[in-house]
């Protein structure tokens, strides 16, 4: 139950012990989540956040973040989701000196942003996400639904087959009835994932 501790530092210490005792590949982690661990003691809460944490913990946190090829696209300056809304445009500079100064300022801020983004590592994003998932079951639910299909497709076919029966067995556990009225719940997340 140390994994449910409200104090992040205490929870981290318990999780480190937990993390170190398990295999460091996705199949071993999923096998532990679906087959080996008895979640009944945590059946009154959204325990899948601990499972998600086990998966995210094996990411190589010192790696730099690389953006997807389509991620450099710029969003529109004006929101288009409300076509009837009137948008206030920023004041336009008057003379060429103001235009040059405004342009230099924009380029400098963009260069600073790119330099900061270049130094980002996986840990800079994943560690806060893991902590947020512990504090909010909805975040954990949505992360599971996003991450699980990605993880599943990286498994070998034999590994997927080996996990199918334990997943079905896990879904049929009576202790999930404690969560049936809650949203999100573990069964809902496992099925949607």
Automatic annotation (TrEMBL):
* Recorded GO CC terms: NuA4 histone acetyltransferase complex; nucleus; SAGA complex
GO BP, sorted A to Z:
DNA repair; regulation of DNA-templated transcription
Q: Return the Pfam families for the record.
A: Tra1_ring
Its signal peptide is: none
**The protein, known as:** Transcription-associated protein 1
Organism, by scientific name, is Noccaea caerulescens
Q: What does UniProt list as this organism's lineage?
A: Eukaryota, Viridiplantae, Streptophyta, Embryophyta, Tracheophyta
């Amino acid at each position: 139950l140390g994994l449910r501790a409200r104090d992040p530092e205490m929870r981290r210490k318990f999780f480190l012990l937990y993390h170190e005792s398990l295999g460091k590949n996705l199949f071993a982690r999923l096998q532990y989540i679906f087959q080996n661990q008895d979640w009944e003691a945590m059946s009154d809460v959204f325990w899948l956040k601990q499972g998600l944490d086990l998966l995210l913990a094996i990411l190589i946190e010192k790696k730099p973040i690389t953006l997807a090829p389509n991620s450099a696209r710029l969003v529109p300056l004006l929101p288009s989701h409300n076509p009837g809304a009137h948008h206030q445009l920023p004041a336009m500079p008057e003379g060429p000196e103001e235009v040059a100064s405004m342009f230099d300022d924009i380029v400098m801020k963009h260069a600073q942003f790119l330099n900061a983004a270049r130094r980002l590592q996986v840990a800079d994003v994943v560690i806060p996400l893991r902590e947020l998932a512990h504090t909010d079951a909805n975040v954990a639910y949505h992360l599971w639904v996003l991450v699980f299909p990605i993880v599943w497709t990286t498994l070998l076919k034999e590994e997927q087959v080996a996990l199918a029966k334990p997943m079905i067995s896990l879904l049929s556990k009576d202790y999930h009835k404690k969560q049936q009225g809650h949203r999100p719940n573990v069964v809902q997340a496992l099925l949607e994932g």
